[in-house]
Amino acid sequence: MSTRAGFVALIGEPNAGKSTLLNRMVGAKVSIVTHKVQTTRARIRGVALAGEAQIVFVDTPGLFKPRRRLDRAMVAAAWGGAADADLVLLLVEAHRGVTEGVERILEGLAEVGQGRKVALAINKIDRVEAPVLLGLTKDLNERYDFAETFMISAEKGHGVESLRDWLAGEMPESPWLYPEDQIADLPLRMIASEMTREKLTLRLHQELPYQLTVETETWEERKDGSARIDQVVYVMRDGHKGIVLGNRGETIKAIGKAAREELEEFLGRRVHLFIQVKVRPNWLEEAERYSEMGLDFRDGNG
Which comes out higher in pLDDT, residue 282 or 44? Predict the structure, then answer.
């Protein structure tokens, strides 16, 4: 039996459930999931196996109206990820329907969708009644010629298997692109950074949503099988540093503990995690910060 392999770009508005779907398909936590918008900054890929097929997911940053350089680079990465894929999967939230953002994405699809199939997945179906769902399906399919439409709940797993099986059948015949045991092609350093950033985002809620970034500076493999990981949290102002550290350093300690525990679970071994907080007023304008996040600094030119 011949093997299949290919790339599927997940596109949609922020919070549409792309990361949750990716994690459900891949069966491991690769792309961070938070309730904040714009958390997936890089083109994180997860690799799912379905029978003889290998599906490589390009989890693009949520598409939204860009305001700053970072926003513009993220939107460019999202469309770039879609243009490089074999198939595009648009995720729309059932209860929000055709928002202004979804309309913008449909316009963009007119160009990106040329020469490749675009499928539609309506997510969070448990939040609406059947007639609403049918009306939304009809509306979206009148606006764009989707190859297939799926009703799913990424969080609960409803409909995800049939979606995965269909995607597997659509992948081109090809040798597998990644070794079977490799679930993400992101360097481990980046996954470690994302895990810490997720903990910061969840802990600090409204205070510092996007004005910080995390970099894994060193990763040292120890003789006893454990790993020592040194990270830096870059913030834009002294006041932000105080918020991240917390009273007597309690906030950063709690964040470090949560990130370390999750990393240990992910890696299956002990981790010694050390986090520093540094003020860097212009990190949003520094090219190397972007390459750390898998984005192209030049894409942010307005």
Answer: 282
- Give Cβ neighbours of residue 210 (< 8 Å, ≥ 6 apart): 38, 70
Distance CA 1, CA 125 (A): 36
- Specify whether the CB–CB gap between 188 and 165 falls below 8 A: no
The span from the CA of 37 to the CA of 246, in Å, is 24
CA dist 155 and 287 (Å) reads: 35
Helix pair 238-245, 188-204: axis angle to 10 deg = 90
**What pLDDT does residue 296 have?**
59
List Cβ neighbours of 30 (8 Å cut-off, separation of 6 or more). 22, 23, 44, 45, 46, 183, 184, 186, 191
Q: Pick 297 or 85 by higher pLDDT.
A: 85
Q: 């810490």: which residue's tokens?
A: 196
Residue matched to tokens 């006041």? 239
Q: What is the mean pLDDT of the chain?
A: 80
Q: Of 18, 31, 27, 37, whose CA–CA distance to 82 is shortest? A: 18
List the one residue out of 248, 241, 258 whose CA is nearest residue 199: 258
The Cα 302–Cα 294 span in angstroms is 19
193-244 pLDDT tens trace: 888 988 998 888 766 655 788 888 888 888 898 889 999 999 888 888 998 9
